[in-house]
Amino acid sequence: MLSCEKISASIKSLQASRGSFDLLCRLDLIRDCLALQREMLESIREIIVNLRDPDETRFRNKLALKYGFEYVESFHGGHFAWAHGRNKVGYQAQYIINRSGQKWSPDISGSHHSPFYLGYSWVYWRRADQTIELSLVDAHGKEVKKVPAVQEIDISDFEKTGLIYVQRKVGDGFVPYLLDYNGELAFENKYVPLTHLRDGLAWAYDEAGRRGKVCIIGDDGEKKATLDFQFRGFSVDEFEDFSDGVAWARIGKTWRLYSAEGKILYETSVQTFRAVYPFRDGVSLIEQEDGFYFVDKTGKKLAGPYEDADEMNGGTAPVSEDKFDYHLLRIGEIQASEKYFDIRNFANGVFFAKERGGNYVLINNQGKRIGNEEYDKVIAINDEGVAMVVGADGWIFSINTLGERVFTKFVNTNNKYCAE
Predict the structure, then answer these.
(1) Total domains present in the chain
(2) What residues make up the domain containing 355?
(3) How far is C-alpha 103 from the chain's CA centre?
């Protein structure tokens, strides 16, 4: 059954990283192994037999509505998720639920949290002294690990790698660390990370001292390449996250583009490139004195200059020659795209576009409109393809790249709740 070709992408993710019954049963901190196994089998049955994946937006919305939650976060291919609602006295509440909508934890409010990875989630909150208190909880919401306070945290990789990135104050400076899903230092502290893990790669330096050799590590903790210079501090050297298998690094007064093997693909002075951006679809946005350009991995200019521009999104980027009219650029083509007063990147080749004097609408990378809904404002866009917007009627809600409302309850600017 598990090898059925019709199993959804969610179950493929389960098989790859979270569907190992043996692995889950070896984790001492999770005591309800039989319950976990039953829960996984139920998830698989729902998808294969009933052709319903509880992680899809429309089924998550029904799950929330059925059990009285305001909204349910994505399961990220796993078996547990955070659900938001109200407790008995009407205050905001957060619960851990399984794919059947059952609560596995009491109310855990007043904190931020990561998605689940192998039955674990990080919860954290900022204290009065601006440090961050950080705890690891299991699917029952029970604290299984507490780590010393940190100054910064990034959980964006956790559901994929089981690793989080934190910075802790040491003496007069800040030292970055990677923690695994057991709350321990990843990679036995052989390397100190300089960037986040992206595309399975990160910049780091070896040895415990601040003068260790710069290297590239993989998400398995193994060194992929060692460079021929030492880390001299962020005021001298700057490292960008990997994307498309390459990464920019500013070494002194020189920008270099490195491959995953540590090979220099291109280099130029910081006077030439004022700023660089990650590669998307094989193209990087860079800024020079006369405007923005798009370059390939050899440093060849493909388009520009532009007065304003954003990164590639599905092979297309919003650009403007005068900051008053924006259109979509596709490298190598004359894009017959309608001009807008503003265009903002969303995700997966989808953009927010605004006509002069009008509202924002969704368009695809061909410039064609998606859906009929209009939005007064775009408040925030996250890395998972969800945006928080203000509708033309003044209500605040979240949508995905199809224009579907992600949550079943929304709030207006007066903080009054209303059912969809």
Answers:
(1) 1
(2) 340-420
(3) 26
